[in-house]
Amino acid sequence: MKLSNETRDVLKNFASINSNIVFNGGNEIKTMSEAKNIMSTATVAETFPDNLLGIYDLNEFLGVMSMFDDPELQFSADYNSVKIVQDRKSVNYYFSDPSILTSPSKVITMPDPEVTLTLTADNIAQMRKAASALGVSDVVVTANPGDAHITIRVTDVEDATANNFELSVDGPQTVFHIGLSLTLLTSKLFKATIMLKSRLN
C-alpha cells in the first residue's frame, strides 16, 4: 500500500487538529480535537486494513514518511506495526493503543444548514494576510437585505473602532449575520476550498 500526496496533505491537515489519529479501515479517515470541538472527515483513494491502527504522533509519522520519495507500507501480520520501505531503506514504525488516543468514536449527524458559503484557498489566504497586518482575529459574515454579495469582514468585534478588512463573495441571498474566529478557521485548513455551513438559530 502507498499513500498519495493528496492523502499526505490531508494527514498534515489532520495533524494540526490533533496529533493522535486512529485508522478504522476503509477509505474514510477521521480526526477530532483534544477539546472535542472540531471534527474532520476525509474520503481518500487508499483503503486501509480493517483493523484499528493508532498513531500517537502523526507529525512524527509524516516526518518518517518524508524520509522516502515513494515508499510502500507493509503491515505486520498482527497489525502492531508497519514497515515503510523503498529500495534498500526501511523503517519499522509501531502503532499505539487506540484506546488511549483521542479519536471520533461515533458518527455525528449534523442538522441541515440554513446557510452554505464556499471560501477558496485564495479567500482564506487574503483573510489571513489581513488579520496579520491589522492584528485582529475575528470574522463576521453578513448578508443584508438588498445585498448582491456576502460580506466577510476581518476585524476585532470587541473594538468598534478597530481597523477592518472586507471581502465580497458569492453566496445565498439570505439575510444573516455569523461571527467566528479566524484563528480556528485558518489554522486547521491550509490548501483547500472549504464550505462553511451554519444554522441561524
Helices, strands, pairings?
Blueprint: H1 5-17, E1 21-23, E2 26-32, E3 39-48, E4 53-55, H2 58-65, E5 72-75, E6 81-86, E7 89-94, E8 115-119, H3 121-134, E9 138-143, E10 150-155, E11 165-169, E12 176-181, H4 182-186, E13 194-198
Antiparallel strand pairs: 1-4, 2-3, 5-6, 6-7, 8-13, 9-10, 9-12, 10-11
Strand order of the largest sheet: 11-10-9-12
CATH class of the largest domain: Alpha Beta
Strand content: 35-45%
Structural class designation: alpha+beta
Could you characterize what this model shows?
The chain has 201 residues and is of the alpha+beta class. It contains four helices and 13 strands. It has helices at 5-17, 58-65, 121-134, 182-186; strands at 21-23, 26-32, 39-48, 53-55, 72-75, 81-86, 89-94, 115-119, 138-143, 150-155, 165-169, 176-181, 194-198. The strands form five sheets. Strands 11-10-9-12 form a four-stranded antiparallel sheet. Strands 5-6-7 form a three-stranded antiparallel sheet, covered by helices on one side. It starts with a helix and ends with a strand. The model is unreliable at 189-195 (pLDDT under 50).
